Target: Septin-type G domain-containing protein
Amino acid sequence: MQFHNPALGLWILNSLQETYEAKRNEFLGELQKKEEEMRQMFVMRVKEKEAELKEAEKELHEKFDLLKRTHQEEKKKVEDKKKELEDEVNNFQKKKAAAQLLQSQAQQSGAQQTKKDKDKKNASFT
Model:
């Protein structure tokens, strides 16, 4: 924008240029200020999210450790019960074998007794 009044025009032109530069610098300053605020907000949100994630990770580790301990305790209980049942089965097998042995001995003894009784009967008839 030019003015034809050389004395005033030059001053007005310089004043407009200075005003433009001042407004431009003010706008750029505000823009940088907003950009910095946005950057700070972003950094703050990132830090908050990191803290949330670390807390969630910590909770997951605690839950995992609890589940692991619970699993180990249950596994130990099952192994103890298995051993107890195996011992019971072994004791039962031993008792069964002993009972079968006694039964077979009793049968043999009974068979011998029956044979003796028959021999006595036969001897008394003769």
About this structure: Residues 58 and 92 are 51 Å apart (CA to CA). The helical segments are 6-125. The radius of gyration is 53 Å. The chain is about 95% helix and 0% strand.
